[in-house]
Amino acid sequence: MAVWLLGQDGTRHRLLDPFVPTCYLAAPATLLDQITRWLCRASCRIDRCIVERYELGALRPLHVLEIAIHSPAQFAPLTRRLIEAFPDAQFFHVDVSLPQRYFYDRQLFPLASCEADVTADERILAIQALESPWDTGYLLPPLTIMELSPESDPPNPNHGGRGALIVRLDGEERMLEGDNADVVRRLHQLLTRHDPDLLLTDWGDSYLLPRLIAMAKQLRLPLALNRDGDRPIGSRKAHSYFSYSRIVSHAGACTLSGRLHLDRRNSFALAETGLAGLIEQARVAKIDLQQMARTTTGTGITSMQLETACLDGVLIPYRKQEPEAFKSALELLHTDQGGLVFAPIIGYHEQVGELDFSSMYPSIMVRFNVSPETVNCRCCRDEPTARVPEIGHHTCRHRQGLVPRTLAPLLDKRARYKRLMAATSNAAARATLDQRQSALKWLLVVSFGYLGYKNARFGRIEAHESVTAYSRDILLQAKEIAERQGYRLLHAIVDSLWLVKPGAGRADYDALAQVITEDTGLPINVEGIYRWIGFLPSRVNPKMPVPNQFVGVFEHGGMKIRGIELRRSDAPMIVKRAQAEMLRCLGQARTLIELRELIPQALEIVRTYRRYLREGHATVEELAIAKSLSKEPQAYRHQTLSMIAAQELLARGIPLQAGDTIHYIMTDAQAACPPDRVRAVAGLDGAWSYDAAAYETLLRKAALAVLSPLGVTIRDLQEDTRPVNTPSSGELPLNFGGLKEEKRPRRPIR
10 Å Cβ neighbour count for 408? Predict the structure, then answer.
């Protein structure tokens, strides 16, 4: 294994560590003889022996053939051919990535402070970490960072990128422009002179690096992207996958050797938790930084479970096949109910307290020992304390499961980060701690989903059902405790409660949280006290509440928003900005009386934005609508607005796949000819115009989402907003019952 270390003197070292990965297989004796003869013909040294190992939850060991391959580079191709040659054998440990296996074996992790004994020819004799991945006060090495990004920042340069290359280093910004040869030469010079440890890019995986590499190859010019010149640049093609009921597009990858490349536009972890959070995830999950940036958070929690299995000597199955046990329809309805939700009381309320269980599902897994091998174990089926509420499952009371052992240190570390945040007043330190605890939160969040995921190594649907059953019981306990103390429940969803009690202050809610924690055994905290909070109705049926759609202002002035345009990725910026201004205006109110007094000011904000649209001042950036393709473009049968824009991009030779996000503006939303209704942002120029009326419709919907519970109607939003330079007669009021809007002139883009 090639290991890169940064010395205390600032020198970068490339060292080699002899590493012998192993895998296991189980097969009948006759088949084992065939496999042994097959292994003898391998081109590298292979050691073999019969050992005893346990499968997860098994009471008796399994006799398996241990195969030690002395050439790590041959491990993947050799095991792949072995699986193809002997499909009837049962394989273990064959598809865990070698960098992860190396970290598990050496008890190392990315960016760890370590000490190594090295020979004169730079081979590692021994290496050990000087810190633990569970430390909270660790320092990061002084990495040199170079940033690369396109000069212009279109929504997606792959749909029409152009302009120079921007390079940022040591607080300075350089623009590399000219012909392709000049750009490649100057970038090569900068890479050679500054030798950065980390390339931080925008659109680096899908746009910048592939084009720079192709340009350098075509011009036969050097480009020192890799610090390790003997290694090729790693690449992975773009692909789409299905996750949590939606199609997601992944832009592929360009990974470097001896140097790190992170693409801000192709990393969920980097976008959600920042660089400090990404590093935190890589350290605890023991996944190299470039891989952690480009994989799902579920891969991180899976890696932690795999390490626990390796340390315990538990066999990791290849393509685990454990079908769900048969259930009748009645049993399925009884056991698989999910989380508990109490529909909110529509409208605005004041002096409301929000209580949240801290990492509820992971905490349940740890406290009640919920793991695939502990649910419905043979030893505890008759113990009353082992019973899962409501359903017929039980959990083991004699041995701790693999999943709880994996999650317990995560929960502990996140709690320590939160205590450190509360104790520090340094803004920069708080920001770093917040990114780290947020990174751990995401790992904990996905641990529940993977518990019931059919392809998870250590997943089982009965464990998933047990967690939700415990959660429903605990939420009901919390509700009943609060009601016994005189609180009224306004809303509850899975792990959060919104309560109100006349005259109750922060101390009262803290005392209530303490009682609930003691009675349920799970920590619950006061998220905050709201001056006011509005639970918003459905836009389809105003009498129906929406569980996760609300706006509220805390006592300290901070705002919490869920489910409205401001939080939606597909809302145009101008609508988000208008809604944000409305909420800032309403946020000044300390009571519901003051809130209603601010309604006229909020309405005036909407009118101002309507006039702005009609006068043609809106820019492309303000109007762009982002939509993700839910399937392959060729699979669409209806001329939706997003499909029309996708067809335009396809006609221009731009490849698209399911999950890709396209950006367009509405040019004439009601046009008889579909191509006239929208235009892709990548193909716009000054000759095109936008449909002001269509954007006004979106603006009204965003305003009504917030204001309708306060009695504001569509007529209130239409007052004193006659079109600029258009006659006032014949204008029809808009509503959501199907009334058509008057055809209005399109406005030019500026």
Answer: 16
